[in-house]
């Protein structure tokens, strides 16, 4: 009989729905996600024990004092095992799925109860929904809604709906037909008959259906943890995949407590909403023994509601005003809170690299979220855009099938480790087994089993498709599918008993350090060449997150670094992966800044962090630029610098008396010679950071026949007898007035207008715009030469003196007071290009925005902080 391609038809149908009804799925996703986020915020906001009190009060109202006490103790236990957040996530999932299910199931059940044809059509559909394995619903859920909460909720709704529909239909059909006929006989409208007769009498059965809906929803949201749904399901899934008994038990007990609470409360709710149940409850209270009345007494609805409201208000107030919990330490806020979704396979190197990047991204101001997935779900989620990146793709061999299927929707950010190898390993005490060929005749030794890992892993597919057939092992051996943790657990048990065992392994892996194992050689090359470990991302990730993508592309770890990181995480224990990463980073100082360098430098603290140097500056472009640059660098290194503008004379006087610690614009040996000669006994020359400066007078290039200072003579009328100067106390102004003018005979024709550098530049800009002649005092380097076409007037008599250097000058006690800062300044140098671009960036930022201009320049020059102020690790 020819094979019926049913699976292909279903697959085509799913693809067609996804391609043509994406708008509908997006709408559903938005609604469901919004409901979940809102409810989860409400449930997760209050203090755990306070919210446990609210839940206990509801239990007291519904069932009595003893159930209330037990409920409080149960939720307190969940809090004590640090699963409160996950439990509230699960409760939110259950309530959202339950509400949606009831909204659809009850009307559908009513319709079926009133229409035999509808009932006949719905019955097989409900049978199909109820008997289909729950895991199957997750597959189309991923295709339609991606990974996360939404596919879990949708799958839960589908899985839990049948009992809600069936019990509603059954309850209404069981209402005594004579009562319905009596209502009809009195002329009651069918809608009023439904609302006033049938539904009240059917309510106990309907509530039983609601109870079943809630229970099935709870069981399904745990399964939904496999596709990234938050909550206890994720905890249980991780425990299963890692065979972690402790984590599994803790997650399981939390699920049990939630299940018991929801079951008892939904069952008891019937007693409050159903008239028949309320009468039965009243009779039960009347029969209660007098000594036990306190256990059966329940507060009135009004009292219970007041109590809940009061506790809720207290909880809200505590959440608003009492939350002192600190977030992750941010060393450089590059991410500014941007979320990043990271997926990982529960393999050691995947866990290690993922939590390493989680820690690094948190330090850089991002908000990363990590979630464990099966391999297939991981690739599907990335291709759909639900996962931003992952760091554990074994290519070109192990994950070749997934890469071939999804490569058009993914980005390869490069490899960070390699080469790797896949292999089958046996303990060294197993004699006569050195290669895969040796296994063929030793099947009885290994009980005809090779212990494998996750069934979806690329290595497992290679074992099944190539390795075992290639060596004839498929005839006598079976490949045991499970998980990496299960394989390691079995290896540990067999090794302890010295029993023969063959396991699928890979290199690097810490198991080779813990056990004495033999890697079976692969002479036929069935496993292929060694893989590399690549980082993959969704399409468009590099464009959306260029900084993170750049870090990942440059990410490298050697075998020693990787194995030590894995070991640190193993030592920290399950659930404390990030603590292990932090311990590893502490033992590897500087690694965070190497892996995730911050634009503008990393924020390592200097040895003298907390010191507060007083920095003076002149209102000159190079001094403004370098002063604000050093202010930024020092603040990143933990210093507390203060800056203040001075006139030249005041600056030197202040430095000599210690009122100013340091300044960066000492023009020596010529321009500021007189000040240096006067105060040098109380100052120290830390060193020069810029060479080949010059002082000059400049004119616009449209002024003809003026190429040197000598050409100015006789042309005072052209320039209205003025040379536009700068601050009167500057060395250049004093040299100009005392030497330059007289040397060229200009002192009788020209006056030098005192002012400021900004005023001179403003006049230059006005004159240049009008094409008016103007002569200004300038110096090199200066950004004005880039903005305007100017002629530096030659100084053949060298009246301005020789070229200056820009020096850092400081109070004589500066080296002793700030030794680290002094050391940085001694080695500091800037090129003409660096200084010019820094000045231009500050000019672009505008007056008053100097710090923004500096930051923009630093962002364009990554690593400048480490270059200027290196901190020994």
Provide a count of the helices.
38
In one word, what is the shape?
Answer: elongated
Strand content: 5-15%
Largest sheet composition? 3 strands, antiparallel
Could you walk me through the main structural features you see in this protein, from its secondary elements to its overall organization?
- The radius of gyration is 39 Å and the shape is elongated.
- It contains 38 helices and 20 strands.
- Helix 31 links the parallel strand 16 (722-724) and strand 17.
- Helix 16 (348-363) packs across helix 25.
- The protein has a three-stranded antiparallel β-sheet with strand order 3-10-4, sandwiched between helices. The chain has a three-stranded antiparallel β-sheet with strand order 8-5-9, with helices on one face. A three-stranded antiparallel β-sheet has the order 13-20-14, sandwiched between helices.
- The longest helix has 34 residues, at 190-223.
- With 873 residues, it is α/β, with parallel strands linked by helices.
- It is found in: Cell membrane; Membrane.
- The chain crosses the membrane at residues 49-78, 90-114, 134-159, 201-227, 239-262, 303-322.
- Residues 87-266 form the ABC transmembrane type-1 domain.
- It is a multi-pass membrane protein.
- This is ABC transporter permease/substrate binding protein.
């Amino acid at each position: 009989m020819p094979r019926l391609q049913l699976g292909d038809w279903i697959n085509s149908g799913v693809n067609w729905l996804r391609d043509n009804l994406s708008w509908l799925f997006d709408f559903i996703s938005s609604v469901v996600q919004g409901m979940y986020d809102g409810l989860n915020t409400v449930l997760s906001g209050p203090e755990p024990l306070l919210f446990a009190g609210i839940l206990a009060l509801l239990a007291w109202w519904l069932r009595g004092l003893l159930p209330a006490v037990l409920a409080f103790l149960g939720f307190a236990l969940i809090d004590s095992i640090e699963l409160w957040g996950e439990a509230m996530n699960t409760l939110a999932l259950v309530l959202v799925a339950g509400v949606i299910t009831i909204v659809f199931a009850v009307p559908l059940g009513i319709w079926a109860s009133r229409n035999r044809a509808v009932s006949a059509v719905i019955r097989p559909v409900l049978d199909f929904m109820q008997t289909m394995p729950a895991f199957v619903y997750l597959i189309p859920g991923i295709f339609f809604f991606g990974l996360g909460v939404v596919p879990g909720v949708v799958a839960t709704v589908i899985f839990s709906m049948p009992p809600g529909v069936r019990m509603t239909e059954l309850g209404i059909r069981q209402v005594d037909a004579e009562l319905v006929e009596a209502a009809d006989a009195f002329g009651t409208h069918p809608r009023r008959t439904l609302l006033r007769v049938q539904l009240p009498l059917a309510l106990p059965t309907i509530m039983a259906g609601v109870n079943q809906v809630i229970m099935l929803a709870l069981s399904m949201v745990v399964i939904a943890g496999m596709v990234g749904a938050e909550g206890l399901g994720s905890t249980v899934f991780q425990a299963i995949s890692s065979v972690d008994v402790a984590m599994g038990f803790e997650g399981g007990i939390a699920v049990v407590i939630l299940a018991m609470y929801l079951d008892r409360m939904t069952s008891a709710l019937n007693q409050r909403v159903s008239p028949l149940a309320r009468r039965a409850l009243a009779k039960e209270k009347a029969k209660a023994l007098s000594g036990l009345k306190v256990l059966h007494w329940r507060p009135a609805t009004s009292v219970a509601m007041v109590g809940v409201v009061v506790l809720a208000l207290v909880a809200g107030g505590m959440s608003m005003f009492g939350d002192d919990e600190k977030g992750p330490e941010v060393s450089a806020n590059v991410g500014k809170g941007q979320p990043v979704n990271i997926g990982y396979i529960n393999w050691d190197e995947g866990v290690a690299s993922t939590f390493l990047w989680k820690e690094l991204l948190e330090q850089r101001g991002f908000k990363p979220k990590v979630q464990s997935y099966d391999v297939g779900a991981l690739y599907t989620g990335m291709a759909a855009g639900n996962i931003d990146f992952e760091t554990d793709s074994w290519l070109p061999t192990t994950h070749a099938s997934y890469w071939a299927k999804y490569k058009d929707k993914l980005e390869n950010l490069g490899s960070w480790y390699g080469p790797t190898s896949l292999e089958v390993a046996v303990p060294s005490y197993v004699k006569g087994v050195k290669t895969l060929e040796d296994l063929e005749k030793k099947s009885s030794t290994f009980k005809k089993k090779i212990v494998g890992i996750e069934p979806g892993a690329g290595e497992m597919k290679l074992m099944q498709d190539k390795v075992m057939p290639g060596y004839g092992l498929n005839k006598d051996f079976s490949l045991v599918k499970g998980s990496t943790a299960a394989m390691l657990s079995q290896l540990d048990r067999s090794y302890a008993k010295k029993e023969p065992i063959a396991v699928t392994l890979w290199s690097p892996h810490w198991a080779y350090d813990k056990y004495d194992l033999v890697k079976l050689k692969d002479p036929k090359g069935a496993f292929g060449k060694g893989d590399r470990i690549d980082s993959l991302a969704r399409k468009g990730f590099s464009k959306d997150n260029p900084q993170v993508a750049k870090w990942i592309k440059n990410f490298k770890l050697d075998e020693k670094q990787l194995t030590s990181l894995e070991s640190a995480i193993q030592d920290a224990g399950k659930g404390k992966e990030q603590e292990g990463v932090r311990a590893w980073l502490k033992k590897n100082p500087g690694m965070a800044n190497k892996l995730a360098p911050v634009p503008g430098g990393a924020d390592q603290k200097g040895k003298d962090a907390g010191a507060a140097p007083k920095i003076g500056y002149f209102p000159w472009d190079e001094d403004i630029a370098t002063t604000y640059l050093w202010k930024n660098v020092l603040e990143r290194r933990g210093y507390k610098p203060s800056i203040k503008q001075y006139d030249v004379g005041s600056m030197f006087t202040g430095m000599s008396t210690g009122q100013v610690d340091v300044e960066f614009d000492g023009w020596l040996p010529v321009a500021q010679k007189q000040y240096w000669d006067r105060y040098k006994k109380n100052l120290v020359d830390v060193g020069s950071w810029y060479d080949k400066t010059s002082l000059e007078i400049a004119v616009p290039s449209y002024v003809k026949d003026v190429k040197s200072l000598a050409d100015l003579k006789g042309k005072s009328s052209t320039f209205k007898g003025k040379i536009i100067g700068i601050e009167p106390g500057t060395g250049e102004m004093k040299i100009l007035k005392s030497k330059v003018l007289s040397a060229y005979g200009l002192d009788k024709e020209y006056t030098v207008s005192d002012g400021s550098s900004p005023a001179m530049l403003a006049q230059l800009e006005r004159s240049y715009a009008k094409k008016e002649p103007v002569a200004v005092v300038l110096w090199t380097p200066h950004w004005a030469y880039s903005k305007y076409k100017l002629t530096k007037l030659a100084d053949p008599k060298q009246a301005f003196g020789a070229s200056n250097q820009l020096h850092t000058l400081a109070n004589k006690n500066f080296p002793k007071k700030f030794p680290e800062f002094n050391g940085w300044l001694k080695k500091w140098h800037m090129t003409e290009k660096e200084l010019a671009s820094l000045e231009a960036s500050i000019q672009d930022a505008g007056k008053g925005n100097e710090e923004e201009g500096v930051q923009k320049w630093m962002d364009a020059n990554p690593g400048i902080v480490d270059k200027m102020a290196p901190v020994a690790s």
